[in-house]
Amino acid sequence: MNFQELGLGPEIVQSVSDAGYTEATPIQEKAIPYVLMGRDVLGVAQTGTGKTASFTLPMIDILSTGRAKARMPRSLILEPTRELAHQVSESFDKYGKYSKLSMALLIGGESFKDQQAALERGVDVLIATPGRLLDLFERGHILLADTKLLVIDEADRMLDMGFMPDVERIVSLLPKIRQTLFFSATMAPEIRRLADAFLMNPKEVSVAPPASTAATVSQSIVRSQREPKAKRAVLRDLLRREEDEMQSALIFCNRKRDVGVVHKSLLRHGFDVAALHGDMAQPARMATLAGFKQGDVKVLVCSDVAARGLDIPQVSHVFNFDVPVNSEDYVHRIGRTGRAGRSGKAFTIATKEDSKLLASLYRLIGREVEELRMDVAVDGAVDGGAVEEAAPAPTEKRRARGSRKPKQDQVCDDAKPAANDAAAAEEKTARRRGKAKAADRADPTPANGNMPDSPFGDHTPAFMLRPVPMAANA
Fold first, then answer.
1. 21-28 contacts: CB < 8 A, separation 24 or more?
2. N or C, fewer C-beta in 10 Å, the chain?
3. How much is the pLDDT for 439?
4. What is the DSSP string of 29-90?
5. Are strands 344-350 and 217-223 parallel, antiparallel or unpaired?
6. What is the DSSP letter of 12?
7. What is the pLDDT of residues 111-132, one digit of tens each?
8. Across-strand partners of 371?
9. Between vectors from CA 163 to CA 161 and to CA 166, what angle results, nearest 5°?
10. What is the pLDDT of residue 383?
């Protein structure tokens, strides 16, 4: 179905055509008519199916009439991350270029002063993350009494990141009579409960089973040993193996510190790579993401900050350096490739310790992922895909723990330990005999004042050399 048949205005249809789209995706085909009717919508679709356009296009049409007041946005879109919020703002710029709607982006890491100035002029569309929105509200720079259209995007991610208390507070500040659009890639029971609380008689549109993966993405599990060095060797081998087919790739790590380690490792081995994680300054994050989208960087190592909603069509490969702890994150990670009907590949590096995580993942997606057997060498050791580094010698282990390096004369051949043991036994026996002789003597203190067979040898303390006075009746 084309966009004109969905009931959108001619200016919006023209902007969509200029962007290169002619046919609506299933979620757009089902959701847009109900949004234009003013109904609350609960949209569930796997990532990469065009959920963003499902609400941005009808919102532009709805807001085309009316005027915004200072500090009183007419509509509000809540996003869990800065990158998603920025991407939605780009969608409004692209699809709303023939409209005169004003827009403001409220995210952390940006200037308060510029955001306040935009709100003072009045905005039709306010795109925000929950924390920055509440911050500006408490400062008195936002009034939500005139917000008649609310969009909660990536609701499951909001729940995972702990934003739901903030979202519930924001919803309580909005008018009771409003239109609410609730979109999510998965529909856990908690999300269903929140949807029932926020929506009024919603129309539910779903185009894929919850937590399903795209059929256009081929998935593989690659086995590795647990050591990070071994996993990095497997990753490098995969990158080289897929180099000819790879347009660009995302590498996901569970921890932000691992992002930096993997990034530096790949740089040392000559890969064209950049890093992206939540601890980076916002300008650096946006510059890195922009460079990746423009093709300046071929491989991006990232945390799950890039796993949700980012639309980068040229991503052909996704590599999971770690099996995600939350199985639903797997769906979102591999959903960065194979978008809009394109084909993609996803590889996940797994160890024996990841067996429970893999079992949970298989239960979620409803099937097992095929294992890819590889022979990967680390420091010359190959074990049929199970990479294992050679254990260091015992002396090397002691040095690694900071122990003293053994002297040359301490390194003995097979004969010396036995001789040393015999000498030690003989010395011990001599000490025992000496003590027994000293005990048998009637006068332990001879005239010269020296202790016989002293266990201290030449280092007998002075107080022990003093004569012992004998009692009168001894």
1. 21/53, 24/50, 25/49, 25/50, 25/53, 25/207, 25/340, 26/207, 27/51, 27/54, 27/205, 27/207, 28/53, 28/54, 28/57
2. C
3. 46
4. HHHHHHHHHT--EEEE--TTS-HHHHHHHHHHHHTTSS--BTTB-SEEEE-SSHHHHHHHHH
5. parallel
6. H
7. 889 999 999 999 999 999 999 9
8. 221
9. 170
10. 37
Measured distance CA(75)–CA(365) in Å, rounded: 35
**What are the tokens at 162?**
């702990």
DSSP secondary structure letter of residue 413? -
Which residues are CB-neighbours of 170 under 8 A, at least 6 positions away? 76, 78, 130, 133, 134, 144
Q: How do strand 149-152 and strand 125-128 relate by DSSP bridges?
A: unpaired
Rounded to whole angstroms, the Cα distance separating 364 from 369 reads 12
Q: What is the pLDDT of residue 390?
A: 38
> Which among 330, 340, 337 has a CA at the least distance from the CA of 300?
337
Question: What's the CA gap between 411 and 127, in Å, rounded?
Answer: 71
Residue position matching structure tokens 């310790």: 353
- Nearest partner of 301 among 352, 335, 351, 265, judged by Cα: 265
Distance of alpha carbon 54 from alpha carbon 57, whole angstroms:
6
What does the radius of gyration of the chain's CA atoms come to, in whole angstroms? 35
Task: Find out whether 386 and 223 touch, Cβ atoms under 8 Å.
Answer: yes
In DSSP terms, 2 is beta-bridged to 23
Per-residue b or e along 235-247, where b marks 16 or more CB atoms closer than 10 Å to that residue's CB: bbbbbeeeeeebe
pLDDT digits 0-9 by tens, 315-369: 899 999 999 988 888 888 888 888 766 789 999 999 999 999 999 999 988 889 9
For 357, residues 6+ apart whose C-beta sits below 8 A from its C-beta are 323, 324, 325, 327, 350
Query: Cα dihedral sign for 176, 180, 182, 188?
Result: positive
